[in-house]
Design brief:
211 residues; mainly alpha; Catalytic domain of cyclic nucleotide phosphodiesterase 4b2b
Length: 211
């Protein structure tokens, strides 16, 4: 087993042990980690998975069911091909694999719902699981400027097949949509920690790619 992911496979085993007695848990977890390690990923990598899971733990008191949010964290970018249907395919994978691992149907449905929510990162008011996952996923936006710059470069690398002008137009549209949202973060802790810094980062990136 790759020593770089030993912590993650152990966390996966501990998480699933609370929900199933299936003998296939480790095999499914290792397959997930293999896909998170695909060479075409630059931001949506093992490091991003680890960050999201860490942020979920930080925000866990906000969640209605922290274990299901953690499972959604594992699956939210399980399929990543820079396509519009990545989130849907990730949700379908979660449904397929978690059913095979014999999790409760209600748990499988909630994990898949949360994965699909990362398409828009717009949880309904009072959706505490959705708010927790979305904040954990977008926490990178509130990183320090050096790390945010590395994130922006990684996103560009994942879309290297797009010409510069096309990428800039698409990226600017995403940035403007984020900036016009009433709030980027929905949990109290997430808003306090990341909102102000995220808006500064987004404005700076938008200025950079449009000037």
């Amino acid at each position: 087993m790759d020593s770089d992911t030993t912590d993650l496979i152990c966390a996966w085993q501990e998480l699933l042990a609370r929900h199933t007695l299936s003998a296939h848990v480790t095999k499914v977890g290792q397959a997930l980690l293999n896909d998170w390690s695909q060479p075409h990923r630059y931001h949506h990598t093992i490091d991003h998975l680890r960050d999201v899971l860490r942020h979920i733990d930080e925000l866990a008191d906000h969640a209605s069911d922290r274990d299901l949010v953690r499972l959604a964290g594992w699956y939210h970018d399980a399929v990543y091909n820079c396509r519009h249907d990545d989130e849907e395919n990730s949700a379908l994978r979660a449904e397929r694999e978690l059913r095979a691992l014999e999790l409760k149907p209600a748990s499988v449905s909630e994990v898949a719902r949360l994965v699909r929510l990362t398409t828009t990162h717009s949880p309904a008011d009072g959706d505490r699981n959705g708010e927790t996952l979305c904040d954990a996923d977008l926490a990178i936006l509130g990183a320090n400027p050096v790390r945010y710059s590395a994130y922006a470069e990684a996103v560009r690398a994942e879309y290297a097949h797009f010409p510069d002008d096309d990428f800039r137009r698409g990226r600017a549209k995403v940035l403007r949509a984020l900036l016009t949202a009433p709030t980027l973060f929905h949990t109290l802790l997430g808003h306090q920690r990341w909102e102000a810094a995220a808006r500064v980062n987004l404005i700076q990136e938008l200025h950079t790619i449009t000037n």
